């Protein structure tokens, strides 16, 4: 379902010089699989995820997500690729002036859905993550765990084949982090592939799965029990 082949990712610093983040990246992810992506802050985890939703292009090599490939996908096709993906961020990125319901429904409106279908699918997603009773609450009225559940609901409301989670528990205390992790694992067991970037090794040990580490800009498979 996903393949990164001999790829590199870099960025330009303020002087215009190219700074290489990671190189010779190789990754395959099967439909319904769960994989952790670990490494310290700044190791390139977020950059690798950006390759998958084509927010950045590889310096060289190829990235393929379903039928979309980095060297052949046109810019106007990228929104269609992203409809196949759900993304959960560490800092929530909820619209502060809208309720949990409106934040989730916004993802449906953005992809052309209207009317009764929006209400049904939005409430189904909120129910799936356990906060349907908080549908009318705004982010400022919600706990950190509730806000992240709303983010997960927004990410899954379009029924993606892959969920990308970028440090989704980074701003949560351990008890709430475990609750969110159990929610993500439940979604994975229902058939949604999950690629989760994290530097929380406690979480990886507690809920083990295939684990890849970014080490000096390269991907290396590691035993989660060794962390």
TrEMBL record:
PROSITE patterns: ABC_TRANSPORTER_1, ABC_TRANSPORTER_2
Regions annotated as coiled coil: none
Domain ABC transporter span(s) in chain numbering: 4-227
GO molecular function, one term: ATP hydrolysis activity
UniProt keyword annotation of ATP-binding present: yes
GO biological process: one example: cell division
InterPro entries per the UniProt record, alphabetical: AAA+_ATPase, ABC_transporter-like_ATP-bd, ABC_transporter-like_CS, ABC_transpr_LolD-like, P-loop_NTPase
Alphabetical UniProt keywords: ATP-binding, Cell cycle, Cell division, Nucleotide-binding
GO cellular component entries: plasma membrane
Family the entry assigns: Belongs to the ABC transporter superfamily.
Purpose of the protein: Part of the ABC transporter FtsEX involved in cellular division. Important for assembly or stability of the septal ring.
Protein name as annotated: Cell division ATP-binding protein FtsE
Species this protein is from: Rubricoccus marinus
């Amino acid at each position: 379902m996903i393949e990164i082949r001999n790829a590199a990712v870099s960025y330009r610093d303020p002087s215009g010089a190219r700074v290489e983040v990671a190189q010779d990246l190789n990754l395959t992810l099967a439909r319904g699989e769960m994989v952790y992506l670990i490494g310290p802050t700044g190791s390139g985890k977020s950059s690798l995820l950006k390759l998958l939703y084509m927010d950045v292009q590889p310096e060289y090599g190829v990235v393929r997500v379903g039928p979309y490939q980095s060297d052949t996908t046109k810019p106007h096709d990228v929104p269609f690729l992203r409809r196949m993906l759900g993304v959960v961020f560490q800092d929530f990125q909820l619209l502060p002036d809208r309720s949990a319901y409106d934040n989730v429904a916004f993802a449906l409106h953005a992809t052309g859905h209207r009317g009764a279908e929006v209400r049904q699918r939005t409430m189904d997603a909120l129910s799936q993550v356990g906060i349907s009773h908080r549908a009318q609450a705004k982010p400022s009225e919600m706990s950190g765990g509730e806000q992240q559940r709303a983010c997960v609901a927004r990410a899954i409301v379009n029924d993606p084949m892959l969920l990308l989670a970028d440090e989704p528990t980074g701003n949560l205390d351990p008890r709430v982090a475990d609750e969110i992790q159990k929610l993500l694992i439940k979604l994975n067991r229902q058939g949604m592939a999950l690629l989760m970037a994290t530097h929380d090794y406690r979480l990886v040990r507690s809920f083990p799965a295939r684990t890849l580490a970014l080490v000096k800009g390269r991907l290396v498979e590691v035993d989660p029990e060794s962390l």
